[in-house]
Amino acid sequence: MREMVRYVKRIKKTRLWIRNDRFKVLIFWGRFLSTRRALFGFILLFAIIFVALAAPFITWFPPLKTMVGKVFAPPNFTHLFGSDDLGRDIYTNVVYGARTSLMVGLISVTISVMIGVLIGALSGYYGGKLGDLLMMMAEMFLVIPTFLLALIITAIFGRDVRIIILAIAIASWPGAARLMRAEFLSIKERPFIEAARTMGLSNTRIIFGEILPNAISALIPYSTLQVGTAILIEAGLSFLGVGDPNVPSWGSMLNNAQRFLRTSWWMAFFPGIALTITVLSLNLIGEALYDYLNPRLREP
C-alpha cells in the first residue's frame, strides 16, 4: 500500500514538473552554458550549423562543379579558399560539406540510438536467455572495429550516402545497447517500479513510460560524442575513396588534396580545419554534458 501511495505521489510530482518544464529547461541551459567549455563548443557548433543551413545564400558557385575558376588558384577574393586541380571552388565545397557531415552524423546516430535503446531495454528489463542472446549479438558486432565494419558494408552494398548512413548506424548501435542495458538493470529494481507492477501496469508501459524516461539522460552525452565519431567515420570512408562521389565531403576533398600538399596547401587546409572544428565542438559539448549530468562529478 505504501508503495502505491509513493507511486501516486511520484505521478503528481511528474505532472508538476511538466507544468514548470520551461523554467527548468531555462535553468538547465543557463547553468550548463555557464561553463567555458560548453559555451565555446556551442558557439562553434552553432556557427557550423548556420553555415550549413545558409549554404545556398553564402556561396557563389554550384558544389562539385568543375572549371569555375583557374586550376590551383590560391585563396583570393573570387575563390576565398582557392580552387583545386579541376578548378572547383574549395569554399563552396567546404560549406556544402558541412551539410553532408551533419546530416550523416545526426541521422546515423539517431538510427543507432533507436536500435540500441530497443535492444538494451529488452535485454535489461527481461534478462534471462533473451537478455543473454541480445548481448551476445551486441558483442559479435563489437568484435569488429566500427570503422572496419562500416567500410565492409559500404564496399559491399554501394557508395550511396544512404548506404553510408545505415552502415555507420549498424556499426554503432552496440554501445547504446550496452549503456541502456546497464541503466535498465539499475532502475528496474527501484521501489517505484515495484509499485508500478503492483498497480498492474503492463511491461510496455513500465519500459517506455517509467524506466526509459529515467534512463534516457545517460544517452545524451553519449549521443553527442557519437555524432562526432560518425562524422569522422564518414570522412574516413570518403578519404579512402568509398564515399558518395555525388555529394561534397571533407574526406574526399582531403583524399584529393594529398597529392598536392607541397604545391597547393589550401586544398587540404580548409576542409581539414572544418572537420577539426566540427568534431571538436561536439566533443566539448558531449564532455561538458557528461560532467554536468553526472552527480559524482558535478561541482557543489
In a few lines, what is going on in this structure?
This protein has 300 residues and is mostly helical.
Task: Tell me about this structure.
- It is a single chain.
- The protein has 13 helices and no strands.
- By secondary structure, it is an all-alpha fold.
- It has one domain: MetI-like fold (Orthogonal Bundle), CATH 1.10.3720.
- Helix 5 packs parallel to helix 8 (161-187) and helix 12 (250-257) runs antiparallel to helix 13 (266-293).
- Mean pLDDT is 84; it is low at 11-23.
Could you outline the blueprint of secondary structure elements for this entry?
Elements (H helix, E strand, L loop, with lengths): L1 H18 L1 H12 L3 H18 L1 H4 L31 H37 L1 H16 L2 H12 L3 H27 L3 H8 L4 H13 L3 H21 L10 H8 L8 H28 L7
Helix pairs in contact: 1-9, 3-5, 3-13, 5-6, 5-8, 5-11, 5-13, 6-8, 7-8, 8-10, 8-11, 11-12, 11-13, 12-13
Task: Give the key terms.
single chain; 300 residues; mainly alpha; MetI-like fold; 13 helices; 74% helix
Residue windows where pLDDT falls under 50 for at least 5 positions: 11-23
CATH architecture: Orthogonal Bundle
Mean pLDDT: 84
Order of SSEs, N→C?
Answer: HHHHHHHHHHHHH
